[in-house]
Amino acid sequence: MPIELRINGTTHAVDVPPTATLLSVLRDDLGLTGTRYGCGIGRCGACFVIAGGRAIASCTLTAEQASRMEITTVEGLAQGGALTPVQDAFVAEDAMQCGYCTSGMVISATALLERTPHPTEDQIRESLATNLCRCGVYGRAIRAVQRAAG
Ligand code: FES
Ligand code: FES
């Protein structure tokens, strides 16, 4: 089915099966591979994108459902080669090891700080609660969000 997606401020016309997920279209059709496949069932955060000011799982959303939304992926954050404060803070705090979960964490942190510029530690923990990290960088990720908020 032909649909149009608004991704990072650009309209993309794609022809996809009705069951295609936003995640598969981002990665396989649009080459936006910063959004990762993890669990495929909305539980790990690797595939998070921002829509409506919230971090949402692109693996449980069909591309057709997403066609009614303005979507931001991790590729849409840095502008003109300049990292965002959240991205800078993740680098400064070394809040990554293998990096597989990092784009999803950065998306969750960005959505949080857009809603709540000065979150409490509990709010940060809550916002990252669905971002699973097999390398265990949770402490550094929390400090990165605090640094970005500061
Ligand atoms: S791959 Fe989407 S939440 Fe895990
Ligand atoms: S840094 Fe490896 S999964 Fe999080």
Give Rg in angstroms.
15 Å
Q: What is the string of helix and strand elements? A: EEHEEHEHHHH
Distance N to C terminus: 46 Å
User: What's the total helix number?
Assistant: 6
Tell me, briefly, the overall form: globular
Total beta-strand segments: 5
In short:
This protein is of the alpha+beta class. Helices cover 35% and strands 15% of the residues. It contains six helices and five strands, in the order ββαββαβαααα.
Brief descriptors of the model:
5 strands; 150 residues; 6 helices; 15% strand; globular; five-stranded mixed β-sheet; binds FE2/S2 (inorganic) cluster; single chain
Structural description of this entry:
Strands 2-1-5-3-4 form a five-stranded mixed sheet, with helices on both faces. It has helices at residues 22-29, 63-66, 85-92, 102-115, 121-127, 138-149; strands at residues 2-7, 10-15, 48-51, 54-57, 70-72. The termini are far apart. With 150 residues, it is of the alpha+beta class. The chain is built from six helices and five strands. The longest helix has 14 residues, at 102-115. Strand 3 (48-51) and strand 4 form a beta hairpin. The structure holds FE2/S2 (inorganic) cluster (FES) (2 copies). One FE2/S2 (inorganic) cluster (FES) is lined by residues 96-102, 133-135, 137.
